[in-house]
Amino acid sequence: MAVESTDSSVHPGPVMGLILGSWQSRMLLAAVEYDLFTEVAKGPATSAELAERLGLVERGTNDLLAGLVHLGLLQSTDGTFANAPVSDAFLVKGRPAYLGGYLHFCEQELNPAWNGLADSLRTGKPQNQAAVIGNPYDTLYADADATDGFLDSMDLLNAPIAQALSRFDWSGYESFVDIGGARGNFAHQVVTHNPHLKGAVFDLPPLKPAFDRHMDRLGDTAGPVTFHGGDFFKDDLPQADVLVFGHVLHNWGVEDRVALLKRAYDALKPGGSVFVYDPMAGGDQPSMHGALAGLTMLVWSRGGHEYAADDLHGWLREAGFEPETVEVDGLHDDVLVIGRKAA
């Protein structure tokens, strides 16, 4: 049987590169699991020294270290290894910008769900069992250390959003509640820059200890930001001038989104507003960021997916709001849509 020749101008490199890229991410996750970058931060060391200190086999460790050098995460000089600047900044445990908590979340929660992508594409159902029976965050928030590590990373990644929206004109409002606001980092930023505001967080009750610890670290022991525990599908939302849904709606299906917006409408004071920010990277031709985010929601959440701002406008109108997309300086990867309730 004759085999047809392929076009000599086409090379399998891009296909093989995708597979190699997946393996490269496994190298990073393994290094973080063993706190390799934290150990290297103590001082340059050889492969043999690091293998002994971390309890690893030297042969595999040497290949791992060489690979991390090629990835730009380590530097090698005369047989010793040191952290590259990016690793020193983001991969050393205990430093302010440590991203290990998010990488642990990816390894423990997202990657297992992504392994079932083919099944989710066929069935439309998530691979995360917590999402199948309830809230996808239930398993994550069951572990205090995992919760703190995850929230450390989320606060770091979301800091530009909090900074941008803290500079928004809040002069027409006296109070707000960050729905799904975790341990209050966004609310703290907004209140700090707008001291006339009374801020609050509404989230699952298991997050209350993490909220208290974070407020204590920030020096907010007097309680300028308060915490309300509850399930936003079952419990009444606190009354306020503004309810904020930041990176919340894309976790849920359309029916759940509309239900949440209707609950928000009922909780808002007359003349109040709902603020919604998300990537809003949906549509017929989403960006790569939007496609990855959408598929993550498919495999991990209960019906979640990315959406376009026009879609949100329709859901807001259905809930009784008058919607408007608002330009905010510094809000680069997200879009803010405000829904206003009549006075």
TrEMBL record:
Entries under Gene3D superfamilies matching the protein: Vaccinia Virus protein VP39 (3.40.50.150), Winged helix-like DNA-binding domain superfamily/Winged helix DNA-binding domain (1.10.10.10)
Residue ranges of domain O-methyltransferase C-terminal in the record: 114-322
Entry keyword set: Methyltransferase, S-adenosyl-L-methionine, Transferase
Biological processes, Gene Ontology terms: methylation
Matches recorded under SUPFAM superfamilies: S-adenosyl-L-methionine-dependent methyltransferases, Winged helix' DNA-binding domain
Pfam family, one: Dimerisation
Record protein name field: Methyltransferase
Higher taxonomy: Bacteria, Bacillati, Actinomycetota, Actinomycetes, Kitasatosporales
